[in-house]
Amino acid sequence: MKSNRRAVSSKLIKTRILLQHSELRKYVPSTYRLTRGRLQVMLEQYGMLYLKPDKGSLGIGVMRVEKRGRTFKYQYGVHSYTFPSFDAMFRSLQRRTGSRCYLIQKGIHLLKFEGRPFDFRVMVQRNPSGKWETTGMAARVAHPHKVVTNGSQGGTIYPAEDLITPIAGAERTVRLLQKMDRLARWTGAQFRNTYPAMNELGLDIAIDRKLVPWILEVNTRPDPCPFTKLEDKESIRKIISYAEGYGRKYNLVCSKAERAPIQETTGILKNAQTPQRL
Ligand SMILES: Nc1ncnc2c1ncn2[C@@H]1O[C@H](COP(=O)(O)OP(=O)(O)O)[C@@H](O)[C@H]1O
Ligand SMILES: [Mg+2]
Q1: For atom 26 of ligand 1, which residue has the closest CA?
Q2: Among 48, 226, 250, 264, which residue's CB has the most CB atoms within a 10 Å radius?
């Protein structure tokens, strides 16, 4: 395997790597392999969970499961399914998961923009002097009827600070962006301990309603496409140039995610102080 082609597909293995870091582990939602017993216990504990294939990508097969009072429900794609008992729901979930290895993760209640949940893609790369540097941050707003924010599932890309500032205020936004930057750099260093050939990572980070960040997933072969959708081309230029430094060339035919409407991205920050770019 070429050194810059390193990809680790198992989400459970990647989660374990994060949990070995004393700081990063605080930002990883509780994650386990899916079993009937574990699903039942975690539903009682958290009320809302995400189920995802251990070796999945692009939001495919990802489901949101909830217990509301005595009712059980889950959402997959744009459809929602309701059940009168845990057993009935579990049988239906089993038909969907089949023999694939799935994991359960505590569900994070994402921040919302115009009623649609959003999270962040943070790109971190080794710069020409070999240090991990955050080169891009973008917010991804879910398709109006979906519970995943992936561009391939109809998500829309916005500048990260444009969506956090109206919720958190300018100062808190700067601190949150700095925190996501720190988490990304620590994750880079932590993954490189295990995989010495690692040069780039893409973190999926959620911010919950208490403004706490959570690392939902680490992508070891990150897609630069979200950053081509930003008006500001500084990130994508840097991403491409650092990648050239370690011999990675991207396919930049990017049609998946939607670009945010221009009047919205420029309008939101009109009265707010622009936070410093990372
Ligand atoms: N624990 C979670 N809480 C809230 N949303 C989640 C959670 N896990 C995943 N999601 C949503 O589902 C999307 C896809 O999940 P992810 O773990 O990134 O898998 P994939 O490899 O398919 O992208 C995330 O970007 C996020 O929008
Ligand atoms: Mg993802």
Answers
A1: 148
A2: 226
Task: Check if the beta carbon of residue 119 is closer than 8 Å to that of residue 139.
Answer: yes
What amino acid occupies position 19? L
Average pLDDT over residues 240-245: 97
The answer to whether residue 270 scores a pLDDT higher than 50 is: no
State residue 271's pLDDT score.
35
Total-model pTM: 0.92
DSSP assignment of 36-55: HHHHHHHHHHHSEEEEEETT
Say if ligand 1 is within 6 A of residue 138 CB: no
Ligand 1 near 56 CB (within 6 A): yes
Give the range among 98-112, 126-140, 244-258 with minimum mean pLDDT: 244-258
Does the beta carbon of 57 sit less than 6 angstroms from any atom of ligand 1?
yes
Distance, in Å, from the CA atom of 187 to the CA atom of 259, rounded to the nearest integer, reads 28
Any ligand 1 atom below 6 A from CB of 107:
yes
Residue 31, both tokens:
């994650």
Domains of the chain, first to last: 7-27+110-268 (3.30.470.20), 31-106 (3.30.1490)
Q: Is 119 in the pocket of ligand 1 (CB under 6 A)?
A: yes
Helix (H) or strand (E) holding 20: none
Q: State residue 7's pLDDT score.
A: 77
Mutation test residue for ligand 1: of 34, 50, 140, the one with most atoms within 8 Å of CB: 50
Query: Looking at ligand 1, which atom is closest to the CA of residue 61?
Result: 22
